[in-house]
Amino acid sequence: MRKSLVALLFAAALPALAVAMPGGMQDGQHPGKRAPHMFHGLDLTKEQQREMRKLMGEQMRQRHEITQRYLDKLPEAERKAMQNDLDASREKTHQSMRALLKPEQQQAFDEGMKKMEEKRAERAEFLEWKAERDQKN
After folding, report:
1. pLDDT digit string (tens) for 11-51?
2. Cβ-contact 127, 2 below 8 angstroms
3. Membrane-spanning residues where (predicted)?
4. 109-129: per-residue pLDDT in tens?
5. CA distances (Å), origin 47, targets 16, 32, 54
6. Structural domains in the chain (count)
7. What domain range is 7 assigned to?
8. I want to staple 74 with a disulfide (CB 3.0 to 4.6 A). Which of 31, 78, 112, 127 is the partner?
């Protein structure tokens, strides 16, 4: 289940990574700032941008909670199959994204992916520790 959770977190984070990468989706009126396509041309104030990000973050958390609720009902074999599909899809997407980049961009991409993987492993370790601690209490 932890692997499924990690995979879901990663799947949810992948679009954010794509947007956050140098040269990601940019709002033409605010060079260097990333904005989803649906907000392009709205000329949002800083406060509106903060509120939009807050709402989008809440929606992502709710979506994750709902997804997890249904995942918890799946048999272990189904969860493992899902995890394998997610892993394969993620790897294919990474390879496709990397192939679009110039060599120096590939290096930066690889470093970013390595850092993200380290954070993911750290988070998984924390969650494992937390689960063990909760079982003892």
Report:
1. 555 555 554 444 444 444 444 455 566 677 788 889 998 99
2. yes
3. none
4. 999 999 999 999 999 999 999
5. 20, 18, 10
6. 1
7. 2-136
8. 78
Q: Which tokens belong to 21?
A: 């990468």
CA separation (Å) from 22 to 11, 34, 44, 101? 20, 10, 22, 11
Q: How far is CA 80 from the centre of its chain?
A: 20
- Between CA 71 and CA 65 the distance in angstroms is 10
Q: Would the pTM count as exceeding 0.70?
A: no
- Cβ neighbours around 77 below 10 Å, total: 8
Residue 98: partners with Cβ closer than 8 Å, 6 or more residues away: 106, 109, 110
Residues 1-4: contacts with CB within 8 Å, 24+ apart?
1/71, 1/72, 1/79, 2/124, 2/127, 2/128, 2/131, 3/83, 4/71, 4/79, 4/82, 4/83
The tokens 């041309």 sit on which residue? 41
Going from the C-alpha of 25 to that of each of 20, 38, 43, the distances in angstroms are 8, 11, 16
DSSP letter, residue 13: H
**Residue 27 C-beta-side C-alpha neighbours within 13 Å:** 15
